[in-house]
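User: Fold this; tokens only.

Assistant: Input:
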Amino acid sequence: MNFDLTDEQRMLQDTLGQLLERRCPTTELHKRLEGDSDLDTDLWREMAELGLLGLAIPAEYGGAGLESLDLAVAAETLGYHAAPGPFLGHVLAARAIDVAGSSEQKERWLPGLASGERIGTIAFAEPGGLWAPEQWTVGGDGGLSGRKEFVPAADVADLIVVGTRGGHLAVVEKGAPGLSVEPVDSADLTRRVHHLALEKTPVQDLGPAAPAVRDLGLALLAADAFGGSQRLLEMCVEYAKTREQFGVTIGSFQGLKHQLANMAVDVEPNRGLYWFAAYAQDHVPTEAERMAAIAKAHITDRFMQIARDSVEAHGGIGFTWEGDVQIWFKRAMFDRAFLGAPSEHRERSIRLAPWS
């Protein structure tokens, strides 16, 4: 069996990579980190024109009608460039409406999400690090009441897919009564998060489709982490070729050679893991939940370790704000924590295993 990307998927990565190479050099990323928002409206518009925002939205609603693996290869490229903006929450909100929404709800929201005219996001976490659908408590008669934490791009989102009691999903629109948004001082400034407070906030119910949305999110986080790991490894190799100590490049030191080799061995095998986790979402339903959990747990953990190793390989400048490593280090922190820690998903993968 030849398990590889199609020519169209590779073209998608190449085209998106060229866009981000032009729009997201590290000099621009540093400017974005020092600003007030992670949303670059010009970049968002160009991503929409590329078809990226509606990649997996059905064609009848203005999307490309592609699959989860296509979203994942795009997420890898975004992670490689540490692209700022609400892509992750946006595509997960679209998936929630596509999977669980009525025909009227799809007609109302999906075309705007596909075109980028509307921005979507998800609100899953509750206080105490409760990410799993079976842990959610937000609910109530006559509207939603409760708190949601670490919601990406809640300040710019036109609609928020909220996880509610019983593993259900509901849509809250921008400016809804009883909804308040509180910014959070988080590490990853390329994807800023907010806390939500809801007080009898009117919603549109979608249905019990939270696990499918969560699993796609896990696969996309794994893809983002793989792309970030690749970028850090390349940065370390380049630095080792140019940085000199004692009159020689540090790449000639045996200890650093071993460290870089170990990093490369840590990164490359993860490619197939995230590919299959994303592929399974559409084609291997019996494996989809477990593979998403494994991919998220393993690859985001490896990303975090690669980030630590990269700080060491860059010496004193690795920790500095002016350096580039810190951008991906903080992105690794986001990928590892969002939708639940690796330990939680390893435990889930064991419970889901056929031999357990």
